[in-house]
Amino acid sequence: MRLLSSRRRHPAAKALLLVAALFVIGAVYAAVAPTEQSAAEPNTSQQVTKGKELFSVNCSSCHGLNGEGTSQGPTLVGVGAAAVDFQVSTGRMPLAQPGQQAPIKPGEFTNDEIAALAAYVATLGPGPAIPDSSQYSTDGLSAEEIARGGELFRTNCSACHNFTGQGGALPEGRRAPSLVGVPNKHVYEAMLTGPQQMPVFSDQVLPSQNKREIIAYLNSIHAEPNHGGLELGGLGPVSEGMVGWAIGIGVLIGFAIWITARGARAR
């Protein structure tokens, strides 16, 4: 009995039990964890590889082989996947030749190719991800929230895009594009990434909820029917005042000249 008791308390037995326990844990982890990773990592890796190939052929001449930027194009390190999705989906990129402003045109890439390019650029440095549909959906917003979106738009956006999002001229031959008919996703990405001359409205500056409210406001005013009359570019009191001044004061001046001329003839 003493011999059996001493064997049970022998240090070697404890070490063997510990090794056996570690072996069992390792075997269970090896059987479960690699299976989950192998289902996701190859797809991600393949997408990034495809994106890098597309980038090398279509983008590297301006942005550099590693997205570091050149004299022809800015660095893409840290711009994030959202910027790529916006620029490429709207046809602004790739540019035929560098210019003051990238024009909107039909896209040259499929959705899968755009996703691959965005995935590759996202690996160059941390940046805004492509927003989820819930972030730019306007479903369920109240009239009060939409009205707040109008206030935010007039405060932050109307100086360039005018009060109804019709677009407008900017200095040095540039132009703020019209927002009529622009998909919600692209409006959200534009606020998130600040393309070209537009400032960046990150989620720290303008929370996602406020972006949704702005988008809802734009959708609401663009859905309003035209009840007749001249829209005058949708500029509000600016264009209306100019027309009133030009026509109203012009008529008064013409009438005054006519009275003066008639009075001179009477003498």
Protein described:
It contains eleven helices and two strands, in the order ααααααααββααα. The protein is mainly alpha-helical. Among the domains are: 41-129, Cytochrome Bc1 Complex, Chain D, domain 2, CATH 1.10.760; 131-224, Cytochrome Bc1 Complex, Chain D, domain 2 (Orthogonal Bundle). A two-stranded antiparallel sheet has the order 1-2.
Estimate the strand proportion: under 5%
Terminal CA distance reads 148 Å
Number of contiguous helices? 11
Overall number of strands = 2
The best one-word shape is elongated
Order of helices and strands: HHHHHHHHEEHHH
CATH topology of the domain at 131-224: Cytochrome Bc1 Complex, Chain D, domain 2
CATH architect. name of the domain at 131-224: Orthogonal Bundle
CATH top level of the domain at 131-224? Mainly Alpha
Arithmetic mean of pLDDT: 84
Helix content: 55-70%
**Major beta sheet, specifics?**
2 strands, antiparallel
Rg, Cα atoms, Å: 31 Å
The secondary structure category is mainly alpha
CATH superfamily of the domain at 131-224: Cytochrome c-like domain
Low-confidence stretches: 3-7, 34-41
Strand order of the largest sheet: 1-2
